[in-house]
């Protein structure tokens, strides 16, 4: 372990002047390993082979074969610039050069002649900032992972609840979510008309689980009738889409949340058809929100390929053929094209889905959030938690968590989503050990115990867990605190903060 800790970071020095490279190597050799490139082409070659090992690039502008700007273009194309900071060290100090360099993603710009201490400090500061960003990314990624896991768990719970009243709906809800996700990603590939972000895809997929909630009002003898419905029974069955939308409209707190708005549109309009012959509002073409159109297609595909009390399951191939031939109603021609493109993936995924969170997708969502460079570090964490809250708010009453962020400079706690009120204090608490509300909630000795646990964490073991009876929502409840501390990248790391949650056990 010690050997890993003492391993020097690698810095790539790209400069056509051997003298300049030698000076920089001499400045940095005590703390870092230097890798040298005598022109831009060699720098790109080294990055292509060893990008995972390079912690920083010191880059000249005027070089043969490829100049510094060319190198930056390649780094942007390969997304290396997102992981490897670049400091320009150049005699070119005109505003054109600095502006173009910063536009291409450089972290800093040092003009020659330079002061040795300036180079040392800027290298240290740049590496420290990037390490903190990576650490923050890991923390946010863990939060997203837990949210996605909670989403899957809540969807499973919802599936089983609905299944009691409707024999088809347990696996149906799971299938709809999977099919919807595949169609949304396929739509992004086939057309640039919508360009859904990973976050929007996750939100629509979560909302799709609620498409049939209106069926809770339909008598079971109609829902589970083995034969064909009479006209009167079918008229009653058709009311479930409007009833589902009405249920969401009447939510006292969350009806304006993006998740609920999307779920409402899906509930009401997932039985509309592109030719205007659907229900309940006979919407025509793109009057139907695209999320509802996609869930409608997913709904029909799953109904065809699943066994029902009134029919056997069709094969995947037969279902695709029936939809394309218009035997199941009219759909957006663009979505039919998408269905054709993703057909093989659809079959494979529905026969191999494990329900696990996609780690790659979590990383992509995290990267999208952290790319918002105008937001501060703690702000990014709070912003992402807020966005993730929208995706599972409809299930929040089941998970019942209090999310918080702890800062050590200044020493304060920020509670999210009304968490402060639930523990009897304000949303922002300065000097939490002395706060009257927190002392009433937990007791002075417990707060001190928790503070001691935080102080005993290390960068290698940053997790804190603590279980106790506390006053939550003005009621004594046995609760569990789970948090992860964040650390500085100094020679002697210090705790800079933590992100955590309090959950009733």
Structural overview:
- The chain is α/β, with parallel strands linked by helices and 505 residues long.
- The protein folds into three domains: 2-114, 3-Layer(aba) Sandwich (Rossmann fold), CATH 3.40.50.2300; 137-350, Hypothetical protein af1432 (Orthogonal Bundle); 400-504, Beta-Lactamase.
- 52% of the residues lie in helices and 15% in strands.
- It is built from 20 helices and eleven strands.
- The chain has helices at residues 2-5, 18-28, 40-50, 68-77, 95-103, 116-165, 169-190, 198-208, 220-223, 231-249, 258-269, 290-305, 316-324, 333-350, 359-370, 377-392, 396-399, 419-422, 436-442, 444-455, and strands spanning 9-14, 32-37, 54-59, 86-90, 108-111, 402-408, 411-415, 428-430, 463-472, 475-487, 495-504.
- The strands form two sheets. Strands 8-7-6-11-10-9 form a six-stranded antiparallel β-sheet. Strands 2-1-3-4-5 form a five-stranded parallel β-sheet, sandwiched between helices.
- Helix 5 links the parallel strand 4 and strand 5 (108-111).
- Helix 6 (116-165) crosses helix 15 and helix 8 crosses helix 11.
- The radius of gyration is 28 Å and the shape is flat.
- The two termini are 36 Å apart.
- The model is unreliable at 1-5, 353-360 and 369-398 (pLDDT under 50).
């Amino acid at each position: 372990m010690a050997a890993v800790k003492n391993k020097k970071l690698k810095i790539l020095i790209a400069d056509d002047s051997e003298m300049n490279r030698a000076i920089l190597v001499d400045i940095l050799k005590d703390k870092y390993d230097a890798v040298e490139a005598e022109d831009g082409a060699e720098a790109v070659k080294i990055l292509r082979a060893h990008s995972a090992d390079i912690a920083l690039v010191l880059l000249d502008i005027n070089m043969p074969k490829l100049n510094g700007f060319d190198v930056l273009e390649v780094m942007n194309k390969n997304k290396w610039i997102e992981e490897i900071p670049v400091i320009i060290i150049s005699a070119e100090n005109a505003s054109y050069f600095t502006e173009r360099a910063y536009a291409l993603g450089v972290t800093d710009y040092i003009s020659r002649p330079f002061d040795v201490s300036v180079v040392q400090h800027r290298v240290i500061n740049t590496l420290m900032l990037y390490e903190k960003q990576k650490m923050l990314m890991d923390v946010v990624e863990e939060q997203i992972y837990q949210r996605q896991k909670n989403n899957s768990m809540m969807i499973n719970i919802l599936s089983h609840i609905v299944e009691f009243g409707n024999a088809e709906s347990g696996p149906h809800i799971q299938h709809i979510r999977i099919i919807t996700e595949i169609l949304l990603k396929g739509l992004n590939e086939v057309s640039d008309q919508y360009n859904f972000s990973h976050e929007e895809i996750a939100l629509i997929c979560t909302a799709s689980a609620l498409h049939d909630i209106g069926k809770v009002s339909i008598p079971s003898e109609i829902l589970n009738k083995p034969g064909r419905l009479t006209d009167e029974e079918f008229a009653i069955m058709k009311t479930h889409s409007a009833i589902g939308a009405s249920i969401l409209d009447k939510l006292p707190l969350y009806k304006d949340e993006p998740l609920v708005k999307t779920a409402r549109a899906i509930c009401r309009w997932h039985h509309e058809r592109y030719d205007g012959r659907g229900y309940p509002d006979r919407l025509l073409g793109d009057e139907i929100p695209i999320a509802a159109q996609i869930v409608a297609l997913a709904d029909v595909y799953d109904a065809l390929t699943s066994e029902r009390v009134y029919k056997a399951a069709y094969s995947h191939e037969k279902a695709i053929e029936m939809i394309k031939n218009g035997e199941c109603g009219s759909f957006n021609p663009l979505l039919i094209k998408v269905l054709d493109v993703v057909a093989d993936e659809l079959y494979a995924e529905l026969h191999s889905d494990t329900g696990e969170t996609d780690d790659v997708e979590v990383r992509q969502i995290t990267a999208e959030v952290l790319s918002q460079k105008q937001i501060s570090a703690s702000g990014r964490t709070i912003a992402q938690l807020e966005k993730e809250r929208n995706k599972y708010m409809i299930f929040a009453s089941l998970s019942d968590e209090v999310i918080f962020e702890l800062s050590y400079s200044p020493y304060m706690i920020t509670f999210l989503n009304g968490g402060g009120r639930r523990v009897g204090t304000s949303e922002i608490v300065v000097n939490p050990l002395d706060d009257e509300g927190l002392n009433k909630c937990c007791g002075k000795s417990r707060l001190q115990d928790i503070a001691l646990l935080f102080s005993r964490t290390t960068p290698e073991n940053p997790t804190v867990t603590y279980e106790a009876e506390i006053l939550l929502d003005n009621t004594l409840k046995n609760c569990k605190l789970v948090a992860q501390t964040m650390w500085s990248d100094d020679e002697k790391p210090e705790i800079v903060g933590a992100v955590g949650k309090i959950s009733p056990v």
